[in-house]
Specification:
The complex is a heterodimer of chains A (76) and B (694). With 76 residues, chain A is mostly helical. In chain A, 75% of the residues lie in helices and 0% in strands. In chain B, β9 and β10 form a beta hairpin. The chains are: A mainly alpha (76), B alpha/beta (694).
Amino acid sequence: MAYKDEKVVTIILEQVGAVEERCPGYREEVQLALAEIIQAERGHQFARTNIVSKIGDLVGRVGTYLNRQTVAASEG
Amino acid sequence: MRLVKARFDGFRLLNGVEIAFSLDPTRNITVIRAANESGKTTMLTALQWCLFGEEALPAGYSPQSMDLTTGQLSETVGEVVYEVASKGVTRKYRLIRSLTEQVGSPVRSKSSTQLYEMLPTGAKEIPNVEAHLAVHMPSDLREVFFTDGDRALSFIEGLRTDQQRRVKRAIEQLMGLPMLEEAVEHVKKVERDVRAKADAATSNDELKRTRAALEALETTIPELEGRLQTTTDEIANLNDLYGKADRELQEALKRGNRDEIAGELRRIQKERAASEKRIRDAEGRQAGLLSNKAFAREMLGGKLRAAGRLLDDLRKKGAIPNKTIPILEDRLQHSDCICGESLDEHTPEGARRRRRIGQLIEESRDADALKAKVSDLYFEGRELFSAGAATWISDYTGAFSDRNTEQHTYEELGRAEAELEAKLDKVKDDNVQQAREMRDTYRERLDEKIPLAGRLDQQIRQHREQRVDLEKRFQTLSAREEKGRRFTCELTAARDMRGVVERALEIMKTREVQAVSLKMNEYFLRMIGAHPDNALIQRAEITSEFRIAVYGRNERMLDPSMDLNGASRRALTIAFVLALTEVSGVEAPNVIDTPLGMMSGFVKTEVVRVASDASAQLILFLTHDEINGCEAILDARAGEVTTITNPLHFPRILKNDPGTTAAQALQCGCDHRSVCSVCDRYPSAADADEREAA
């Protein structure tokens, strides 16, 4: 009876395709981070964690990637 | 998740009852056969208690054994073995829940649980049981997977807003929408935090103002969304109430206005009184016709004529004087005689005749009594003896007809009066007025709420657009700052990620709900045997407002709670549950108590077939009557069948003495077709009476 998140994840992955590729590999980073967010959210449902902090880290990771790539592109 | 087996001890009627569930995918039905009051619902409750704990018990429900008395210790134990498949690996678990309580104690104890993973090397105890159970069996899903024929009806019965709420909640829970909504909120919170950091890292006033405006919008938008949702619910509810009040008004108008009915009643009562008087008059006329001479002549005509002839003979023979005292005396009052001669006393002849008449009067006084009577009869009855015109019959026929006509009118008026009185009784005081006022009140409230919803919707749109502009502005301003660039990138990432989750949520709410709707329609039409080209019920759907709607011919919308029969209502709700569980992809047993009530023949068999097709594992609690007619499909699809019997049904229902008077259900291996000395029962009270008499 466990929740089946495959459907949710499938739809999220579909929608990532609509995200602007702001730098090479950006979309992939977003996709990875979202998959981890869903996993974290489901885990949070059964055992409380500091979910906002976790998501903050994931957003920060994607943001840092974007920043680095943008800076690298402007310098290069 | 699939159930492997379950055992219950000390749970009401259940003690030592052990059920094995079918794990065969081609014969995925497990049947627990039991008559009423034999432990079906108890077992459904016990199973849920074991898996979900006390929250699965109805309020005030006690699982204590039925034979225990106040002060005794009650020990209840439930054990369920189940397996969970994940990423191609199937793990088996054994869950034991136990509860010890003192009977009659107002203090409710909490059950304790133990969970073991069944490994080839032996059982391994798992700590933190409830957290594991919450993952294996989320309690949010309980009501969809464990249901009964009556409870499932709540998806289509009751207040429309309640129906919608239940349908929406079931869909959302099974699709995992609350988790996505939470994710959106958490990403928003991260966005706010990033903005705050960007704000703190800069001295740009415009950036600070933009952030403050964004923060305000982040508070305002959800508030407005909440108000819009409440207003939309209120509108749906008011529409329901308005529709109901309007129907009541139309009904009241059909029954009529109380004042009008009372006025009509008074008029009819007055007419009936007048009619009564006319009947009495007609009766008087009729009675008069039965006591007059014409009646006597009509009735005794022949006899009277014969009597007249006899009297004439007597007169001719001189037996009846042709003079009588009254006539003679009467003549003396006149100046001429009957024969025309003068009786003038001033003339000699007249005086002579008068003397002669006087003399005759004196002579007549001497006549004997008989002669006097015969004379009287002769003179007084002359009118009767003569033929006369025969008008009595036509007079009487006329009077009789008048009386009958009036009697008919009187009866008609009486019936009309009774009808009006009955009508008046049904029409409560101010019924029409009250119904009209109620309807108008709902209309007024709707007229307030509908524009309010429009305004709220408009405000939300404007605020959202404003938020998008402010976000862009914030990022532009932030990007200008050296320190702000990193935050700008984080905000961009957060906004992109939030957008993905929001779109996924929207898709889940539309596309996936549509998928459930289509599946439900397919199952429902199969269950009720409706052909799309030739059936009263054409299709069923889940509307965008999460309402289960049914359409008849010509796309006419039907109210499932009113326009569907009991069997179709149950089939519809079971179709919804099956469609939802299938589309959600959640693998779990569908456990349904008495799903086939009110069903017969085709519908009953097809509900079992469709439910078996749509379920990974189907567990049905069925009465003997529900099984009746489904034997063939159960032969083909039931992998496990067990029978539970209440021994206290002996001797009125059970044929054989079970050898115990304990309130503990007995279990036998009889399937849906067979009986044994434990479960054999009388088909009816008459059969039991016959056996008792023998």
